């Protein structure tokens, strides 16, 4: 019989699952800002290096733990890839693209309902999305009230998601996504640069 070496346990068959469980609990209980890789590792009973091995960093851990259908950093990169004068169109196109996919719609509905019914989930999503999407988009605008402008866009998008996918309010629900992009993009662009 060999003696077990001191320290944290190595990765096992469900180590990744244990890390995700600990991360979900930490994100839900403490929020994004107060959650740390070391704390998650401690709660999962593993070394912090193993969390980095599986997830890379806190942003990746957040995306996995929340089971987001798309990485918010990729969303920000896609939105920012082009001229500022077309930002509103790119934002609504990417947003509807996520929601229009069957897997994306199912996950986003669950997430939206959770945010509306749970202050903890709302705070967690607010902190994570602010860091990974709102802050980079605001920085690209290079105006003093950029955060307000991007927040106004977010308010429009949340309203669109509620009316199209949760309340299923006609004709918004039955309107083709391309038509919604054409109608909503100018309003979003006005918020951003008007």
UniProtKB/TrEMBL annotation:
Keyword list (alphabetical) reads: DNA-binding
Named from the GO MF annotations, one term is: transcription cis-regulatory region binding
Top-rank lineage group of the source organism: Bacteria
Q: Which residues form a coiled coil?
A: none
> Any idea where the HTH tetR-type domain is?
13-73
User: DNA-binding region located at which positions?
Assistant: 36-55
SUPFAM superfamilies listed in its UniProt record: Homeodomain-like, Tetracyclin repressor-like, C-terminal domain
Q: Does the keyword DNA-binding apply?
A: yes
Q: What is this protein called?
A: Transcriptional regulator, TetR family
């Amino acid at each position: 019989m060999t003696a077990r070496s001191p320290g944290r346990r190595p990765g096992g068959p469900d180590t990744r699952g244990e890390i995700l469980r600990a991360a979900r609990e930490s994100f839900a209980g403490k929020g994004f800002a107060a959650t740390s890789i070391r704390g998650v590792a401690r709660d999962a009973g593993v070394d912090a290096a193993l969390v980095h091995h599986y997830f890379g960093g806190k942003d990746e851990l957040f995306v996995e733990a929340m089971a987001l259908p798309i990485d918010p950093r990729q969303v920000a990169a896609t939105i920012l890839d082009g001229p500022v004068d077309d930002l509103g169109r790119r934002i609504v196109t990417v947003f509807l693209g996520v929601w229009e996919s069957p897997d994306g719609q199912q996950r986003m509905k669950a997430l939206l309902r959770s945010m509306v019914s749970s202050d903890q989930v709302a705070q967690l999503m607010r902190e994570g999305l602010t860091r990974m999407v709102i802050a980079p988009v605001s920085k690209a605008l290079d105006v003093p009230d950029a955060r307000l402008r991007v927040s106004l866009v977010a308010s429009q998008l949340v309203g669109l998601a509620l009316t199209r996918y949760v309340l299923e309010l006609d004709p918004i629900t039955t309107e083709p996504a391309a038509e919604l992009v054409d109608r909503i993009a100018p309003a979003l662009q006005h918020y951003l640069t008007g």
